[in-house]
């Protein structure tokens, strides 16, 4: 799906707000949206913003990174930070943690605060899966709150039960869902402990998104968050990812997988399947690469982010130039045909309307170029705080790479 140039720059602007390139207003609020893949994050965000976020899906397929969406609510500018789920089949937990840590560290270093967290869980899961438990553990490790007053747990995928002929069957279906819901609320391995620490649970429905956001806005006013644990660990304590609480959870798992792989490789004889040997060796190498990611420090992420930004800003400039050239040429072609003999008034009106639309398009693209030039200046001139410049560059570069996948 093609993305208009001005919308591309809007995406960059949202990243700039989240990561502190542009200073937020005191009334702005930033909420993390977390949960495993398929938990309904896009549906929730769409209901909040009133916009179709399918573009986010294609962007995510290119970058597997953070996405930022915005809307206005209760007189405030609300930013939703859509995060990739851990235990995703398309990307390692180490890569996901790196992307999350980079964005959150840049945000914190530039004095942008996270005001609350939305955790989505599908009630349709007949049991609490490993991926769901993994995301709960990682959310706790990333946030590290003493209390969870600023956490809204949203149960999604509630079915619309039809009026069945057998009233008994309908009631039984409702009873099973309510039983599952109550277990989630009372079992400490699930959400029980979080609710006792101040979290609130919601059943997602047609008007639930507004209720959730309203709740988090008021909780943020009563219980302001100073920092997430991972922000404090990386920015204030200068820990590499491997030494953060979230990194320790992932590192322990990787170490176990590496030990299993090494044992398997050592046990294979020359008569064993070549494919099996290759697969085991490849898996071991992937584990080592994940460990290398966890060894990254703030400085490493700064360096990598700066490099990605330098490459991606060139791509964005090229895309904007390409769109402007196409729009200018189309406008020229339409204008050059306006002196042809016109036999129908409708033809003239249609052409005139087309010319006005093209002029507006050209104007919008040029305005987008000017806006993007200002962001480039902030990056190049180091107008943002210290090492956070590189982290911010990494996040915006990731967005640019994803948008390039959509446009080019």
Fold blueprint:
Elements (H helix, E strand, L loop, with lengths): L4 H14 L10 E6 L6 H9 L4 H10 L3 E7 L2 E7 L10 H17 L6 E7 L7 H14 L7 E6 L10 H20 L5 H5 L3 E4 L4 H15 L6 H8 L8 H23 L6 H21 L3 H39 L8 H36 L7 H20 L1
Parallel strand pairs: 1-3, 1-4, 4-5, 5-6
Antiparallel strand pairs: 2-3
Helix pairs in contact: 1-13, 1-14, 3-14, 4-9, 4-11, 4-14, 10-11, 12-13, 12-14
InterPro entries: GTP-bd, P-loop_NTPase
Organism: Clonostachys byssicola
Protein name: G domain-containing protein
Describe the protein's architecture and organization.
The protein has 408 residues and is of the alpha/beta class. It has 3 domains: 5-236, P-loop containing nucleotide triphosphate hydrolases (Rossmann fold); 241-294; 298-407. Helix content is 62%, strand content 9%. It contains 14 helices and 6 strands. It has helices at 5-18, 41-49, 54-63, 93-109, 130-143, 167-186, 192-196, 208-222, 229-236, 245-267, 274-294, 298-336, 345-380, 388-407, and strands spanning 29-34, 67-73, 76-82, 116-122, 151-156, 200-203. A 6-stranded mixed beta sheet has the order 2-3-1-4-5-6, with helices on both faces. Helix 4 packs parallel to helix 11 and helix 12 packs parallel to helix 14. The longest helix is centred in the C-terminal third of the chain and has 39 residues, at 298-336. The protein is globular and about 75 Å long. The N and C termini lie close together (10 Å). Residues 55-64, 341-345 and 380-408 have low confidence and may be disordered. It holds the Pfam family MMR_HSR1. Residues 32-100 form the G domain.
């Amino acid at each position: 799906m093609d993305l208009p140039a001005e919308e591309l720059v809007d995406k960059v602007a949202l990243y700039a707000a989240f990561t502190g390139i542009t200073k937020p207003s005191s009334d702005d609020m930033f909420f993390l949206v977390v949960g495993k893949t398929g938990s309904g994050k896009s549906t929730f965000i769409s209901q909040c913003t009133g916009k179709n976020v399918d573009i986010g899906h294609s962007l995510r397929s290119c970058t597997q990174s953070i996405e930022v969406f915005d809307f206005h609510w209760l007189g405030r500018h609300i930013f939703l930070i859509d995060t990739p789920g851990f235990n995703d089949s398309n990307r390692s937990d180490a890569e996901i943690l790196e992307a999350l840590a980079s964005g959150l560290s840049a945000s914190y270093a530039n004095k942008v605060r996270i005001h609350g967290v939305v955790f989505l869980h599908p009630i349709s899961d007949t049991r609490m899966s490993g991926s769901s438990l993994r995301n709960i553990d990682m959310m706790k490790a990333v946030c590290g709150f003493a209390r969870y007053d600023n956490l809204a747990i949203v149960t999604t995928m509630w079915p619309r039960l039809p009026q069945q002929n057998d009233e008994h069957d309908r009631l039984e279906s409702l009873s099973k869902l309510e039983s599952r819901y109550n277990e989630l609320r009372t079992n400490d391995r699930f959400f029980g402990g979080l609710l006792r620490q101040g979290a609130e649970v919601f059943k997602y429905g047609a008007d639930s998104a507004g209720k959730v956001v309203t709740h988090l806005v008021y909780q943020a006013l009563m219980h302001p968050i100073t920092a997430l644990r991972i922000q404090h660990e990386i920015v204030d304590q200068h820990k590499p990812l491997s030494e953060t609480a979230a990194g320790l959870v992932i590192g322990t798992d990787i170490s176990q997988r590496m030990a299993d792989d090494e044992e398997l490789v050592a046990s294979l004889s020359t008569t064993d399947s070549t494919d099996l040997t290759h697969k085991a060796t490849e898996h071991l190498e992937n584990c080592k690469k994940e460990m290398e990611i966890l060894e990254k420090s703030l400085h490493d992420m700064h360096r990598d982010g700066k490099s990605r930004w330098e490459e991606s800003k060139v791509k964005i400039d090229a895309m904007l130039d390409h769109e402007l050239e196409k729009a200018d040429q189309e406008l020229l072609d339409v204008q050059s045909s306006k002196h042809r003999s016109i036999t129908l008034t409708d033809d003239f009106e249609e052409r005139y309307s087309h010319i006005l639309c093209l002029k507006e398009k050209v104007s919008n693209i040029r305005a987008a170029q000017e806006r993007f030039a200002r962001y480039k200046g902030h990056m190049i001139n180091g107008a943002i705080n210290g090492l956070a410049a590189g982290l911010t560059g990494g996040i915006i570069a990731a967005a640019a790479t994803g948008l390039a996948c959509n446009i080019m």
